[in-house]
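Database export, one record per block. Field names are fixed; values are copied verbatim from the stored entry.
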Amino acid sequence: MGSRDMHGSKDVVDLVEKTPCAIGYSGLAYATDHVKMLAIKKEDNAPATAPSIASASDNSYPIARPLFMYTSGQPGGAIKTYLDWILSDEGQCIILKKGYAPVRKVTCNAQQ
């Protein structure tokens, strides 16, 4: 018994997969078919919500959280270009393809 401080989300999933009765918290993008993702209730009388891109995006999964990027002041130059690209349809489609919830609804084509 006890707890372990892991180096990253993939390590958490690997440990849970290999350790009977282990539990962990990791990002949706690291989900595998070898670990069970739990549905969670916001309140005792509420229905349980399963983790998914949709439930993370609409905040119905109670323990979903956003990922933040911080800059020192207003971004400019290459940093602004990079952040604008991340928020573009192309960037958000890459995020979605990797298994993360995009910051907004986005329609992706096969090439993205």
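Remark 1: The chain has a mean pLDDT of 92.
Remark 2: The chain has two domains: 9-57, 67-112.
End of record.
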